[in-house]
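Worked example 2:
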Amino acid sequence: MNTEGDKIGKVPVWVLAVLLPAAALVTLGLALGSVAEFANALVIILTDGAIAMLVLVAAGGYGWAVLRFFRPGQSPRLLCLATAAGLGLWMLSTAVLIVGSLAGGLLTMYLWWPVICAGVVLAAVQSRRTLKTLNLPGKSTVISFLWVLPAIAAGLWLAGATMPPGWIGNLTMDSYDVLEYHLQLPREYYNAGSVTTLNHNVYSHYPLGVEMLFLLGMCLRGGPYEGMHLGKLMVGLFSVITIVGVFGGTGLSQTALRKHFRGRAAAVLLATAPWMIYLSGLAMVEPAQFCYLALALLWVRQWLTKPSVKSAVVIGAMLGAACAVKYLSVGLIAGPVLTVMLIASMVRHRRRIPHVVLSAGMAIVLFSPWLIRNTIATANPVFPLATKIFGQGHFSDESAARWRDGHAPGYHRPVPKPADYKPPERQPSRSERFFAFVSGQKPYDTQPATGPLMLLACVAIILMFAGLRETGAWYWAIFGVLVMQVLVWMFFTHDMPARFLAPAIVPLSLLAACGLGRISNAGALRRTIAVLLLVTATGWNLASAWNYFHHPAQQQICNRVDLPGPTMLIGEARAFYLPADTVYATVFDEHPLAGILRRSGSPDEVADEIRRMGITHVWVSWSEIDRLSHSYGWPAEMSAARLRETFAGWEIVEEFPKDRPVLTLYSLKKPPDPTG
């Protein structure tokens, strides 16, 4: 008996097996724009990409060894595999943190390659029965050609991932974070041979779950620059896990054409979302947030359908893993998911409330390594947050105030206020910023687009309210998570940065897929309309991502800089491409020069103290000092006027540009004594 899908037709699987990689490679070549860059990218993919896949398999092996004891019965297989991989990546990351913190000299390939190989062997042993019974289909339905769209997205992702870190991302200043701490911190840990908190870089006190994977990549490849592309590719693995989990965990329909249609739609929309493509190509942490949020929501679905202690444990584990990669996950992921679980328990069955408590406890357990680390280092488990409650660690009063005001909602003056400071003109309100984000207007007109997802999600929400009885509890839970994410972003983040709301693409995609599923419920015409809407939205996504990828403001030079000697940076903190002995501090930390200027008087005394640190050159970024002075704040003792006065007699090695320098390199080397 032929199914509906058979009537439409089938194609050999080998056609897809050839077409999908071809689509990705063609997109990769077109995005890079030259044969030389394409060849270089292929080398990176075949080397670092292969290692990244080994890490993924090893993570799956370790994760499944634990998940098998907590996996509820009758759970979707792909969802379980994706969850095992996500859990395994948290395990590897936490292992790097613990080993690197407790024992020096163990951040080496001689330890971590055996760990990865053991994980691969464990994965092979655990999957041997499944692999023996695996029966790949010879043909697939025509609807499977939808996977060409994620393949094109994969080509754009690989183009970004194989470029040097910092090459793209300049448009939204994300490259600043990459070069200041996402990659710089693992680099410092690797060079030091241990994982420690760094008082010159406050971000070393953040939860660094993804950065520990960057450090793992540096260990496997034998160096920071050797492992930087591997780290970027491992970020993309979180996106792969997300797409696999969503595809395997959302299918509901029974006919051949509509089987897993919602899963396909959600996976394709997520894979082609410009935020997903953009962030997966950078050394950023948001793809891990996408991954753990999606997996948590999919397990909430299992919990709502058949509540169990096991599903509550898995939900908590995913929430804790999300918090271990970014503090904001507490408010944007863990808080909203636990809240909807609590509401569902109170409305439907109060005996489920202990499950919510269990999930919260499990989240704290997976988050706790970072809380414990900060407690030991600063007596504040969430440093540099909540400094008024738990203490301000190594922060001075001024630094603590600068951090609080620089990250608090609403408008705050710089700390301290410069003499020439003028308050900005009227700032847009929260609601104005929200609608500007939705419509893609300033200040969000240069951000990755969310238009297609917004439109489809709005259609889905309208259909949900129009058919209250037909809408399952899970989709209302997703809607609740989305609303809480928007509220947290609007009322608790400083200036509402667009990237902070990027995790919302997960509930938006799931809701959009729900709407498409409702449209396709009956009749060939409606199914055709649903497919056309999906293709149109994903095509719009890809066009937006392509235009964003080629925006001229993305281009910047990111090369390793060979300075003439040990150098102190002033104003600049993006040290990743500078020599390992470079001295720097973030704007929130005490700069070594600040203490010297407080103690010393004459320029000669200042120069002598700097020389005693082993520094031979000083690199001053005047433009950054000006920007920071009028945004977060800049120490008064290091004002531009004081620095120019102090450096007036020092030898200038280089200035750029000559007419009005924004960068100046000074030399502190004493000229040879002519008397011998």
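The first strand starts at residue 10 and ends at 12. Strands lie at 10-12, 139-141, 567-570, 617-621, 651-656, 663-667.
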